[in-house]
Structure formats: C-alpha cells, structure tokens
Design a protein that fits this description.
alpha/beta, homodimer, STAS_dom (chains A, B)
C-alpha cells in the first residue's frame, strides 16, 4: 500500500487509518490531505483510528502535524475511535495535540465539526454587523 | 491487522478496504458486518475500494458474499471508488454481483442508499393503503 485513501463526506474528509504508518506513508497522507482540503474546500477532517491497537510517539507526532496543517488551511480536525489503551499510551508518551479534538465515534465527530462551522458563521455575521 | 474497521454513518455502515484480504480477514469482515447490521439496525453498507489496485476472483467472491449476506438482513450494499482497471479485471474474471450496486464515490453511494430507503417506505405505505 502506497497511500491511505481519503474519503469525502460533504464538507468533511474522512481518513480511516488501518495500518502502521511508516515515514513515507505518513508524509504522503499529510500531503494528500492538504491537497484535498484545498481542492475540495473541505472544512473538517475526521481521522478514525479504531483499528489501531497501538499509537507510538512517531504516529502521535504525525497526527499532530496533520491537524496543524489542516488548521493553517482553515479546517478543523477531530480524531475518533481511540481505544482506551491508546489514550493512556498517548498521555504516558506526553503527546499533546494543540489543534486536534477527540470524539467517541464518527457521528459525534461530525456533530462537533458542524457545531464549529455554525460558530464560525455566527462569528462572521457578528463581525459583519459590528462593521 | 486482524480485522477491517466498520464505521457507522447514520443508518449506513462504511467499510474502507485498504489491504489485500486474506481468507481469515474476509470471513471476519463478513461476520462483523452481519453482526453490526443486526445490532445497529443498519439499512445500507458502503464498501470503498479506492485503495485497491487489484481485485482478484477471491476478493470478488468475498464482496459478492458480503452483499448477499447484507441483502438477507434487509440491507443494501453499494461499492464505491472502483478503479477503471479493477472494473475491467472483474469483467474479465467473469465476476458478477447480484446484490451489489456501484457508485463513483461515497456521496453518490449514499444518495443511492437514500433513494432505496425512500422507495421502500413508499412501497410500505402503498401496501398499507391497499390493505
């Protein structure tokens, strides 16, 4: 496998990570996601890691970078399906994500992204009114 | 990897196949999908194969079996993201799917499943009226 597929769901992109990401695969994913956010005008990215038993500090850092890249392109990232053991490992490894939020499943993740977009459009209207 | 994750999107289930399915993985997927259709009351199954360069007759048969199992449980199956070369190979292999339809991408696949459900509910109303 040379790349992880990215699926489009309306304004959001969905990535289901099922394999251990080696260096090149992680970089390709980051590239592909950035390209798709720009080309499709995506506002949100959902990353499902329910298939991962283990997340090491390399994958932790890659996921953080993906979220940071998305943020620069004005898209929000939500990670879903994290197993309890993975959450504990991430805390133990000291991995912190500035631009990533977490939701239990895809549906809750999409709700989170929708709420974000509504907040953003309200803020835009308020700015418009104030001006 | 011991199983392919199944994601829930409203009334539908989404499976993104990214690895070559050996025997056990295929059987586990068929089992897991049947269980999830029953437990979650899913009406549709979307199978994304955009990551597959190659579909051999074994995978072709497995996908057909998955769709047939779903059909017995009153769920429809749509395959999405098939590459042109895969389509040609399937025809050359003589693989035919009785219970599977195809759509170019997830969004069109979901529209197909939605249309099915509307047809089904109309048919139900008509039967009710006739009775």
């Amino acid at each position: 496998m040379d790349r992880i597929p990215i699926l489009q769901l309306g304004e959001n992109l969905l990535v289901s990570i099922q394999v251990d990401m080696h260096d090149q695969l992680a970089l390709t994913l980051q590239d592909d996601l950035a390209t798709m956010i720009v080309n499709k005008g995506a506002r949100g990215v959902l990353i499902d890691i329910s298939a991962l038993d283990l997340v090491d500090s390399f994958i932790g850092r890659v996921l953080g970078n993906i979220a940071a890249t998305a943020r620069v392109l004005d898209a929000r990232t939500v990670i879903v399906g994290m197993r309890p053991a993975v959450a504990i490992t991430l805390v133990e490894l000291g991995v912190t994500w500035q631009h990533m939020r977490s939701a239990l499943n895809i549906e809750l993740g999409m709700a989170l992204l929708r709420a974000d977009m509504e907040d953003a459009s309200t803020a835009l209207t308020d700015t418009h009114r104030a001006g």
